[in-house]
Design a protein that fits this description.
Helices cover 68% and strands 1% of the residues. It is mainly alpha-helical.
């Protein structure tokens, strides 16, 4: 086990590479030399965020596992990328073109940034119905990191970004009547999804779109109908991946096809698919979305990247340290001041040294936890799912296994372990809400009353704060609810940030909307719930969707003004909880529906 985060992602890469029997060349071809890769795997060098994220995805790991705290230049570049993608998403071609021209001048001198520019030009050409230029540009962009793309028959490893380019090429080839070529590309990606054993977070971005693309060809009569049985298995796997990750990417066209496929392969599940499709159609229609939104987010969606300069400065202030005290002998006070003032980017070594001093050992390469084995991350994902479903018996087994393999020299891992112990005791009925809140506050490196002072919180800190607030809600302590607005604003105070930090934002806003409603502030609660629902729709997520929908239903119930619209929203909430197999919430929502069936 690694003693610091320095070699952690190298160990993670090596573990997955060997587990999947991939060669170094399989992973690094087209993006870096074998020498650079070996240095990364051995912890000798750190590499750019573009390189690390691509390598992680190529070995099938969710790119967020390699850390979300970026250097100044990388943070600015990714922010500029997101602005371009937003222009594409909104259909504002002129704005996207202008932003892309600026981006190209500033960043287009390296392989990954140049590839992004070419990819965006392909997107723009496609929006302007210039399919011939679009397909040429997609091919050029893809060959920047997959130079032998034309000769590829089997994909051993691929990034989400590269897969999206292949899918777009396939879609355009089909549109142009080049059926055999489109079918070949879809088949390559479907085989990869079926056999790669990559993390579901990656597969959720690729599998549903690949399935729908191939089924477009089959449904048009351009391929054999006997493919239906095999494609139904692919469709089931794609739906399972969406369910596991609580995503809604391409779920409507996928379910429409599944209704056709199930006629011959699985008639017993027709009603289930009809119900889910009706709920999804109703939800997206309510939000005014007629097309698949994820089409415009091929890269860096909801990964929540943060600026390491800000993290360092906030924690310095939190601990009451002067610039000279924090700098010590590891770096000059003048250099640290320039880092704090965002005049320079700290090196990876400097960032690690400063964060270690500030009690954030391991944070630089962390998501919620930091580990050198993918099993730890899978256990964490399962732990979260058990908590949602209130499967405390299974959760205890998973939690024990996770705690055994987490490196306890990392402070944030210790915070995770401490939090899980609190939740376990609470589930057994051994703690009051007062005691839970007190112990949660003790876990944090700051007082709850000071939580609003900080904009960059660790994911585990947000979880602890949310639990504390939930306890205050249970105790009916609503004397300081304005704090919730500040916490939410600190998390994300504009539409773009709400999507960038969707994971943290959806968790906070569902909790806070409930608090305001329980406090009798129904209008405020509705306002938050509507915002949360809009973000969930825009990002095609469903972690908190059912809770947000029911929140508005409950508020109207308290007003004594339940309408048929509330019945519709409650049915949607029920469908989404049923889809996630969340039995306890399903039963609760079903009772409400049965009690109000007169509407």
């Amino acid at each position: 086990m690694c003693d610091s985060d320095k070699g952690y992602f190298g160990w993670l890469l090596k573990y997955e590479r060997e587990r999947r029997s991939l060669s170094v060349n399989d992973i690094c071809e087209g993006i870096c030399s074998k020498g650079i890769y070996n240095k990364l795997e051995n912890g000798v060098t750190s590499g750019s965020t573009h390189l690390i994220r691509t390598l992680f995805q190529r070995v099938g790991i969710n790119a967020d596992r390699c850390g979300i705290y970026l250097k100044l230049d990388e943070f600015r570049e990714l922010s500029d990328r997101q602005n371009i993608l937003e222009g594409l998403h909104s259909g504002d071609v002129c704005a996207a073109k202008k932003l892309l021209e600026i981006y190209e001048v500033q960043y287009g001198n390296n392989c990954f940034s140049a590839q992004f520019c070419t990819y965006m030009r392909a997107r723009l050409a496609q929006l302007e119905a210039d399919d011939e230029s679009a397909i040429l540009l997609y091919n050029r962009a893809l060959k920047a990191t997959m130079p032998d793309y034309d000769n590829i028959k089997v994909v051993k490893c691929i990034s989400v970004y590269e897969a999206f380019m292949m899918l777009n090429i396939a879609g355009l080839e089909y549109k142009r009547g080049h059926i055999a070529k489109a079918e070949e590309i879809y088949a390559i990606l479907l085989d990869y999804c079926h056999s790669s054993n990559a993390e579901s977070w990656n597969m959720a971005c690729i599998y549903p779109k690949a399935v729908c693309g191939m089924l477009d060809i089959i449904a048009s009569g351009r391929a054999h109908r006997d493919e239906y049985s095999r494609m139904y298995q692919h469709a089931l796997a794609a739906l399972s991946v969406l369910k596991e990750t609580s995503r809604l990417h391409y779920i409507r066209p996928l379910l429409r096809y599944m209704l056709v496929l199930a006629q011959d392969n699985d008639k017993g599940r027709l009603e289930e698919y009809e119900e889910l499709l009706e709920g999804c159609e109703c939800f997206f229609k309510m939000q005014g979305h007629d097309y698949e939104l994820f089409e415009w987010y091929p890269y860096y969606i909801d990964c929540g990247f943060c600026l390491v300069n800000d993290l360092i400065n906030e924690r310095r202030i939190m601990h009451g340290m002067t610039i000279e005290e924090l700098a010590g002998t590891g770096c000059s006070a003048r250099n640290l001041q320039r880092i704090i003032m965002k005049q320079v980017s700290p090196s990876c070594r400097t960032s690690r040294m400063l964060l270690d001093k500030l009690g954030l050992k391991g944070a630089l390469r962390s998501d919620v936890i930091v580990a050198d084995n993918i099993r730890a991350y899978k256990l964490w994902d399962e732990l979260v799912e058990c908590e949602i479903k209130k499967d405390y018996e299974r959760k205890k087994i998973v939690s024990d296994n996770l705690c055994k393999i987490l490196n306890k020299s990392m402070q944030l891992n210790c915070m995770v372990i401490g939090f899980e112990k609190i939740l376990a005791e609470a589930a057994e009925g051994g703690l009051t809400y007062e005691e839970i809140a007190k112990r949660c506050e003790e876990l944090l490196p700051f007082k709850m009353s000071d939580a609003t002072k900080y904009k960059i919180l660790l994911p585990i800190e947000r979880m602890i704060i949310k639990k504390y607030i939930s306890c205050m809600d249970r105790l009916k302590r609503y004397d300081n609810l304005d704090v919730l607005d500040t916490l939410l604003s600190n998390c994300a105070d504009n539409d773009l940030d709400r999507k960038r930090y969707a994971r943290d934002y959806e968790s906070f806003i569902s909790c806070f909307a409930s608090c305001w409603g329980n406090a009798g502030e129904y209008d405020k609660s509705d306002e938050l719930a509507k915002t949360g629902i809009r973000v969930e729709a825009e990002c095609e997520r469903m972690h908190s969707l059912a809770s947000l929908l029911y929140c508005m239903v409950w508020n109207n119930g308290q007003r004594g003004n339940i309408t048929s619209q509330d019945m519709t929203m409650c049915k949607m909430a029920y469908v989404f909880e049923k889809y996630k197999n969340n039995t306890s919430k399903m039963e609760f929502l079903k009772r409400w529906i049965d009690n109000h069936n007169y509407l």
